[in-house]
Each structure stands twice: as C-alpha cells, then as structure tokens.
Amino acid sequence: MVLGTIALMAEPFYVRVNGNKDYAAENTGEQDFQGRTQYAAYNVALAAGDKVTCYDEGSGAAWNIPVIDQYGAYRNFSVGSDAIVCQTAGTYDMYIKMKYQDDMWYIEESNGGGGGGGDTKTYSNAAPERSTDVMFQAFYWDSYQDRGYGRTKWIDLNDGQAEEIGQWFDLVWLPPMSKSTGGTGYHPVQYSSLDGDWGTKSRLAALISTLHQNGARVVADIVINHAASSIGWCTFAKQNFGSYGSFEPTAAWICKTDEMNTDSKAGDCRGKATGGNDDGENWDGARDWDHTNAQVRAMFKAYLQWLRNDIHIDGFRYDFCKGFHNSHINEYNTASGPYFSVMEYWDGNVNTLQSHLNDANWNTCTFDFATKYTAFNEGIASGNYGKLKGAGLLGAGKGRYAVTFLDSHDSFQRDDNEFCGKNNSMKYPGKIQQCYAYMLSMPGIPCVFYPHWVKFKAQLKPMINARYKTGVHSESAVSDEAGNGYYKATITGTNGEIRVLIGPNSGYATTPAGYTKAVTGDGYGVYYKLNSPRGDKNQNRHPQGIEEVGIQPSAVRGEKFIENGQLYIRCGEQVFDIFGHKVK
Ligand SMILES: [Ca+2]
Ligand SMILES: [Ca+2]
User: pTM of the prediction?
Assistant: First the structure.
C-alpha cells in the first residue's frame, strides 16, 4: 500500500498551512547530497502555532515530514505528530527534499540575507537552544604586543592560527575592533572606523573570512556604555555606517550624570553633558552614552546592523553591562538579529545574573561569573570539590544562557593594576586543567581563554573533542555527586555521554567500564562513550562561509563523486560530505 502511494506521488506539490492554505512548491531542478529532489515554496507567511504539511495534488494526499535540516531555521519549528509546527511567526522559504521514506524540510527565513560569506541571517533569539558551541577568547590584555603568550593582532591570528582556531572552536571572540584611544580598545573613539592597534580593516576582513571558512562564527566585542571624545571632552567623532545611517553625536547624547559635568579637567566642557540620567552605572574613565535617547539607540542599532551585514560579524559580546539598563540588549539584538550574544555583567550572584537576563528578555547569554567564583575560585582552587555541584547558572538549570569561563583579559593580567591589584589578585590561582575538564564537559557554552589555549592545547583538544563526539550541549542533563576531594558527573549528549572525574579522591586515573579515555591529567579524567561513531571535531566542520563557494547544505550545486563508498561533492577546490561538512 505504501509503495502504491509512492507510485501515485507526482507534481505539483504544495506547502499546506493548517490544512487549508496552499503555497505552490516549484521543482528547483536540484538534488541534494543524498539524491533527494528539491522543491521550494517561497515567502510562506506563518504565525506561531501554524501547522505545516506537504500536499500532493496528484494523489490528493497531505503528509507530515518529521525531519528538519538543522542548518536552516529549524529552531523556529517543532515536529508534531501530524505536521511540523511553527514556533516563531515569520516569512519562510521552505524547501521540501523528497526521497522515499527520507523526506525532509530545509527552512530559511525569507529575509535571510546571505551572500558574501558569514552568517547574516537574522535570528530570533541570541541564546541558541541546545548549543554545542565552544567559544574562544582570541586575545588577552594588550596582546597586540607579545605579553608572554604571543601576539594576537589580526595578522598574527590569520597567519598560521585561524585555521586551527576555526576548526576547534565555534565562536571566536575578537577584541574591540573600532578605532580607540589605543591599547586593547575599551575606550572607542569612532565605532565606524575599524583601523586600530589590532590592525587594519582589510586585515580584519581577511581574518573573519578565514575563521568562517574553517567553520567558526565571529563574535565582536561591543563597547556601548561609553566612548572617548575625539577632541577635548565634548567633541565626538562622526559615525558613518554606510547604508545603515550616519550620526553626529554631541554632548547632549551623554548622560548628565557623567563626570564631564563635574571633573575640573573637562574645562569648557563642564556642564555640557545634557542627556538623561544614566540608566545604569557610570564609568568614570570615559563618557557614558544616554541610552534613554532614541538617537543614541538608533546609532547603536545601525552600528550592529552594519557589523552583521557589511563586516560579517555573527555575534556580540557586550562590554560593561552594568553601565546601562539591560532591556537595551534585547532592543539591540532584536534590531540586528545576531546568532549569539553574551553580556559581561560582572557579578557572582546567580540570582542577580538571572535578573539581568530577564531584563534582556532572555534574548542573550551572559558570562557565568557565579560558576567562576563558586566552582573554580572557591571550589577547585581551594580543594573544596563540593562547590562544583549545583554551582552557578548551570546549577540553576540555565545552561542555555550561561557562558562559562575561567579567566579573561580583565582578570588574568593587566599592567595598570586597575583590576588586578599589585599582586594580580584576580587571576585564577588554582589548577587550570581541572577547571577546563569541568567546563568543557558540563552544559553552558564554555569559553577558552587564549593564554590557556597556548599553554594547554594538548589537553584541551581531547576535551573539546569528547564534547563534540558525544553531542553534549548547553542544556545537557547532568547527574553528579561530590564529596571530600572529589566531584564526579555524567553529562548526557545527543550521541553519548561524558564521564568527568575531578579531584584527588575521584578515581580519575581509572577508565570507567564502558568508556573511552579522552584525557587525564593532574587530578582529573575525562571519558566518553558514544551511541554511534563520530569523527574528530576538526575533521567535520560545517563552514560558515559556505555561501562563498555557492553551496547551501540543502541545495548543493557541484560535482558529486563516490570515494571509498562515500558520496562527496566538489565545489571548486573544496570537498564536502553529505552533511555539508568540509572534508578538504
Ligand atoms: Ca563616564
Ligand atoms: Ca552608563
């Protein structure tokens, strides 16, 4: 009977919404990697809750396609028993890829942009669900000079490092890239100028392209609480974001609570900051923008849209989020649609972190300072392994919103003693590898810090690989126990599980029955088991710059060939497997 139905299937096909509205699906004339013929219905307008099926006019039958390609806007849909169900209202291009018992949807948002490489789709939430991403902080304080762990100018990263970084990490956080008063860049002078101490705009573009081609998304450091003036204290540089607008900020755009109005060094500028009250904290080292001013907000929306679409930035790391009300994060992300964002809200209280995520409408992640302080500083560094259980945002069940980390450019080492004190008191003092064994095994999005990568690459790679192979993600379930001198956890991924043992009494050196060793070291062991075999992470990358070679994972144009029984596709000099992963 089933075969009979297949025999009857014939064009024309339609995308049918709620059983009564049809959108014609045209034959695109293309087949995907697996030989499925592809049809497409464009600009399908859907509301949340709408049910979508495929309809065959030839047989008069509608059927549910329960598989959605993960590289499209799959997060906006769920699979129901009789249809796929739209979760996020929007206008979508829906590709039906048909093959007997192997049909699937590939769905893109119709305004999805594209072209030019990079990830310019607009995402509806900047905290990705069930994210398998691992993040990398690609700099440390003033590392445009070698300050002990190598130099990280754009050219240094692009020449010899970016391929490896792109292959092992999914999100690469670059330092503030705008023209600034100098140094690391946290006092920007002109957002729309990308020439600074890290290098030129063209060097930056080359680095972004290399990272995309090797499978990573690029996260820009966004400093919007404050800026430096260009002349004196109250003259600000013009901002030109091309088609997204140009702006001429004045002292009226600065909070009246800024020190411009009180500091004697402001000279003639004293009293000229006439904006509203700061809706967050004041930063006394630079001029605080008045985010209650619609012109200021328009400038930052244009800035972020320009970064997304013209510079091919995929995500944002928001600096000093104590400095302004975090509802603005939601507003700016909604306007620019990043794949991912993370707030730097420097507070170790897990309830405070959640309160500010709530202010941002949960449309972002935040750095998990609670895990840093509780699990690492008070826990591992003090030999108190009980602190690892239930710590931070992970313990609160908010792994989707947590970016875990150990040290940053601020805490690790700085010359000015501003943060660290003379004894560098904020630098993490304990066993570093144990912290990474924890972070890279647990939910959340772990962030690896450049100096730690340089020093412990041999240990970190197998940890990242175990996470990748098992499919552990930001919302993975954890089963754990802790006691005197030990923490033991099992973390469940989509393709297996990780067993992590930390502490001198954890039995870390003995491989648990049924597991494979990823890596062991001083007081820790990371082990994994898989549901099905999976290659190494750096061999299985889905290039973010895939548009540059004219390929969509859904609709592949190129030459197919079979090697060792596997189907591959060649586009120019690049070769992809059937999942769209670049293999050559
Ligand atoms: Ca200020
Ligand atoms: Ca402020």
Answer: 0.77
